[in-house]
Amino acid sequence: MEMRASFAKKDAPVKAALAAGMLAFVLWGGLPLVRHRRHDMPIVKGPGVTAVLRLSEFSPGLEGTTADTNIFVLQGREPGGKALLMGDTHSNEPEGMLSAVIVIENGIVEKGTLYVIPVFNNSGSRATRPGDGYPLYFDIPTDWGTRRFRFGNRDASPLDQWPDPDVYIHYPERQLLSYIDVRNTNRTWPGRADGPLMERVTFGAMELMRREKIDVAIDIHGAETMFPVTNCIVAPESSVKIATLAALTVKAREGFENHVEPSPSGFRGLSHREIGDHGPSLPFLLEAPIPFLDQPTGPKTVQFLLDGKDPFLLSLSKKKKLFVPYDETGWPLEKRVGQNLSVTLEIFRQFTKKTADRPIALRGVPRYADVVKEGVGKFLADPSKAAAGGVVRN
Amino acid sequence: MPVIMIAYYVITAFLLVVLVWNFVREKGRRGDLALYLLVMIPLLLRLLRWK
Predict the structure, then answer these.
(1) CA A279, A280, A282, A285 torsion: positive or negative?
(2) Residue ranges of chain A with per-residue pLDDT less than 70
C-alpha cells in the first residue's frame, strides 16, 4: 500500500506535465482547424446578380447545417434557357470555385438565367485532408491586394456527417461504392430528401434543376495529371454532341486541348450520369489538370497549388507517365480557370445554336486568353469596396 | 444531428473517460502514460468538434 502511494506521488508531476503537453498540442493543432471551419469567404454580388437563394430552399433537410450553401441567380434581361454552374463539388479542386466566383462577380446575363453555386460542398470546403499536409487557405494576388480563399477537402467533414458506413450503397441504384463516397458530393447524385447529409445536398441541386427546368448543368472539377480522365469534358449521350462541338471550337479558336470523355452508364452517383438520368438538364463535368492532386509530388504548398510546378511530375512527364503535356511552366491556375471559363461559355453558345428558342447568352466573363494574360486576380472584385449588402459570405 | 451520430459521440465520450481513468490510475509505467494521451487526441478533437 505504501509502495503504491509512493508511486502515485512520484507520478503526479509527470502526469501533469504530460497532460499539459498533450493539451497544448491539441490546442496548437486544433485551433487553426476551428478557425478554418468558421472562416467565411466574401463573394461580391456582381452587376448581373439579381438574387441569392439558399440550397435549403430546395432541400429543407439542409437548413441550419454546414452543408447549406448559397445559390447566386443572374437573371437575364431577355427570357431564354437556364443553366446551373457548380464549383467546389470537391473543395480541393479550387479552379471550379474560382471560375464560379469570376462569373458571379463579372457576368451579366443577356438572355436566359444562370444559377451559380460557387461552394457546392460547403462542408468539405471547411475541412482538410488528414495526413496530406494541405494548406488551409490560399491567397490570390490582385491589383488591390490579396484575396483569401478556403482550401478544403474532397469529401464532406465528418463533423457534419458521421459515421461512415462500411460500404456506401448508392441511392436509388443500390450500387456498392467505397465507404468514403457517402461524403463525396460527386457520388451521392441524385440524392434524396431524407438521406445522409451529402445526398440532401445533391437532392437540393436536383430539385433546383427540376423546379426551374434548368437546361444545362455544368459541374467544374480538377483532376490529377496521372489520371486518364483529365483535361476533358465528361458528358453522357444526351450532352455529347454539344460537348464535342465545344471541345473542337475551343481547340480551333483558343488553342487549348479539352477532349470529350463519355460518361460511363454503369458507374453510378456521378453528376454527369445522374443529372441527365433523373432530371431535365444536360450535364457536363469539366476536368482541368491540377498537379497538386497527384500523389508523387513534392510538398503540397500554396505555391504548388497556384503554379502547378513540380520536379517529380516533370520527371514523370519525360517518361511519358502523364496524361497531359507537362513542362517547366507547370499547369498554372490561370490556365485551369481560363480553360473552365472558355469551355463553359462555349457550351452555352453551342446549346444556344442547337436550341434557338432557349438562348443562354452572357457577357463580361473573361475567356482563356484573358485569364492567362491578366491572371485570376484581375477578375476578382475587392469586397471592401462593394456597396452595402453587396457581399455574401459563403 | 442523426441518432447514429449522437450514439457515436456518446461512444467517443465513454472511451475518453475510460482512457482518462486509466491514465489517472496508471502507476509506474511512464511509457504507457504517453500512449494513453496519444490515443486520447483524436477522441478529444472529435468530441470538441474541432476535427
Answers:
(1) negative
(2) 1-9
